C-alpha cells in the first residue's frame, strides 16, 4: 500500500546553508491541480518547436522531458531564447509567482540565507520517467543570484547537492539560494511504485533570469 506523503510527519529542515526542504507543502488536491496545469501547458504547444522534448546534450539525449516557459533552454551550445523558429516560448503562468512567494516565505523562516523571492521569469517543467534522473550540474545560465524554487510531484527521488541527500516525495518543495545558489546538484532516478498520481516524477523549477 502506498502512503500519502501529505500525512507522513516530516519536518521542514535546512539541508545546508541556503538549502531548505519543505515536505508536504502541497495538499493532494493542489498537487492534482498543478499536474493537470502542467499537462495542459504541454498539450498547448505539442507539435511545435517549443514542445516538451528530450534535449540533446553532447551526442546523446537527456533522460528527462523538458518544457520551457518564459525562456527556452536550448542546448549544444547552451543558450536562452524567447522564440524558436518563429514560435514564441509559452509564458510563465501567473500562479507560479504566487507559489514561489509562498514557498520562499516559508523557507526564510527556516533559513534566511535562501535570500529574496525570485521574480519568476522562466520555469522548467521536467518529467522524469520511472528510474530516470539528472546528473550533477550547476545552474549557471541565469544572471540573477536569487533562489531557485523546486516543486516535486509523483514518484519519490533523491535530490543530491554538494554531498547532501534529501528524499523528495510528491508535494514537497525545495529552495536553494544564497550561498548554495551555484552549488552542484542532481537527482537520482524516480522510484517506481511510490506514487499513485504519476508513473514517473514531475518537477517544476522557477527562476529569475535577469538581475
Query: How would you characterize the largest beta sheet?
Result: 7 strands, antiparallel
Number of strands: 17
Rg: 16 Å
- Catalogue the unreliable spans: none
**In sequence order, what are the helices and strands, one letter per element?**
EEHEEEEEEEHEEEEEEEE
Q: Which sequence of strands runs across the widest sheet?
A: 1-2-15-12-17-10-5
Overall spatial form: globular
| Structural class computed from helices and strand pairing | alpha+beta
Q: How large is the count of helical segments?
A: 2
Which strand-content bin applies to the residues? 25-35%
How would you describe the overall organization of this protein?
- It holds the Pfam family 2OG-FeII_Oxy_2.
- Keywords: Dioxygenase, Iron, Metal-binding, Oxidoreductase.
- GO terms for molecular function: dioxygenase activity.
- Its cofactor is Fe(2+).
- Residues 119-210 form the Fe2OG dioxygenase domain.
- With 211 residues, the chain is α+β, with helices and mostly antiparallel strands.
- It contains two helices and 17 strands.
- The strands form five sheets. Strands 1-2-15-12-17-10-5 form a seven-stranded antiparallel β-sheet, with helices on one face.
- A hairpin with a 2-residue loop joins strand 13 and strand 14 (164-168).
- The longest helix has 17 residues, at 28-44.
- It is globular, with a radius of gyration of 16 Å.
- The chain starts with 12 loop residues before the first strand and ends with a strand.
- The model has no long low-confidence stretch (mean pLDDT 93).
Amino acid at each position: 500500500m502506498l502512503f500519502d506523503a501529505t500525512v507522513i510527519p516530516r519536518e521542514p529542515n535546512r539541508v545546508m546553508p541556503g538549502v531548505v526542504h519543505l515536505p508536504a507543502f502541497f495538499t493532494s488536491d493542489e498537487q492534482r491541480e498543478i499536474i493537470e496545469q502542467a499537462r495542459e501547458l504541454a498539450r498547448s504547444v505539442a507539435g511545435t518547436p517549443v514542445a516538451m522534448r528530450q534535449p540533446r546534450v553532447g551526442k546523446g539525449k537527456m533522460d528527462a522531458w523538458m518544457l520551457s516557459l518564459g525562456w527556452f533552454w536550448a542546448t549544444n551550445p547552451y543558450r536562452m531564447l524567447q522564440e524558436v523558429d518563429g514560435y514564441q516560448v509559452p509564458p510563465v503562468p501567473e500562479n507560479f509567482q504566487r507559489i514561489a512567494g509562498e514557498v520562499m516565505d516559508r523557507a526564510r523562516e527556516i533559513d534566511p540565507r535562501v535570500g529574496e523571492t525570485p521574480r519568476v521569469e522562466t520555469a522548467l517543467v521536467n518529467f522524469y520517467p520511472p528510474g530516470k534522473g539528472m546528473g550533477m550540474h550547476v545552474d549557471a545560465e541565469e544572471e540573477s543570484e536569487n533562489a531557485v524554487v523546486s516543486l516535486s510531484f509523483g514518484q519519490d527521488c533523491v535530490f543530491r547537492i554538494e554531498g547532501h541527500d534529501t528524499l523528495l516525495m510528491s508535494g514537497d518543495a525545495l529552495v536553494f539560494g544564497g550561498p548554495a545558489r551555484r552549488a552542484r546538484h542532481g537527482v537520482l532516478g524516480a522510484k517506481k511504485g511510490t506514487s499513485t498520481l504519476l508513473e514517473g516524477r514531475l518537477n517544476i523549477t522557477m527562476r529569475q533570469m535577469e538581475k
